Amino acid sequence: MNETRYDWLSDRWVIFAPNREERPDQYRQVVPAAANELIECPFCCGHEHETPNPTLVLPENDFDGTSTNRKHHPSSLTRHPWKVRVVPNKFPAIPTIDSERFESAQLDSTRFHLPHSSLSSESMQPDLDRAVCLSSQSHVQTAQAEHLFQRNKPRGAHEVIIESPIHIDSIADLDEDHISLILEAYRRRLNHWRAQRDLKYAVIFKNYGSDAGASLYHSHSQLIGLDFVPRDIEKVNQRLVLHRQKYGSCYICQVMNEEEERQERILTSSEHFVALCPFASRFPYSFSIIPRVHKSRYEEVTETERDDLAVVVKKTLAALESAQPSAAYNFVLQTSPFAGGHEESYHWRLRIIPRLSKVAGFEWGSDCFINTVTPEQAARTLRAHLQ
Q1: Pairing of the two strands 201-208 and 157-162
Q2: CATH code, 40-97+154-384
């Protein structure tokens, strides 16, 4: 049974999903020798029966569908009934909520249950004070023990965005129109889940390569929605609010403007977006794609902005895959939390995090990261590989 457990010391909820061990993992097998060597894949066109019923199919109407990956698949001019499909994950980390309002059921009901959001030490203090004031010493011991082991039955959403009807492993192999369609699927599904009152946060992400957590070669991304806001997301949001209150401006807008002035860490830019390697990157060759116009929600992206973003995504990912051919990476689309207030301080962005280095003992022990490539060098190298 899936559940979340609360780590009081680090103020963090952890998701336990034993069913995820049952999902297929093609990376446990030998990688196909040829890029166009097809394997049995539930995401390929013709295998739709192997996935749950879709929640979204694009294009929605009949179209003269042609595959865009002609380099790897010369026979790809055949018709396909869809280009992008969104389906519920067969092995969800988070069980999907119904469309109607639900109340999260607790596995353990305790006097000192924390709501599904992170709490500061100050907000915990009243409960701890009441525990100390209990007249029975045995009651005090029980109360203190109960707050150490809190768990919930999670509810949320977990969907897979299948990005192509043909068997490719990289979104960079698709043309800009197709990538724009994928970005439209992101927008629609985030809008759908934001409308569910019980969800507090959602993230869209892609795992490219086994070192980044991928289990299937076929290019796809995922959406996970939660009925709580993770602590690290809350912390970032609080920092953005603090910057706006102190300086009267958006932190990310100011960083983007300063970076364009300096041009040291800019990877590329367009009419609507700037791609840059962050000044204090934790991982080699990581970069972010930031909208020029301040928007808290990715879901508010216009059609023109979406098409422009598709061009920047293709260009930058192709540069990364050219500069580091064997690199796995995570692709994370971060939009504002669905709840919590101060939304105007948030600035959505797309982060690409290559997995070229291992997180080792020092990082785990200190939460301080060692990066062997400066963002200035990373930007120069990636710029040299732009097509």
Answers
A1: unpaired
A2: 3.30.428.10
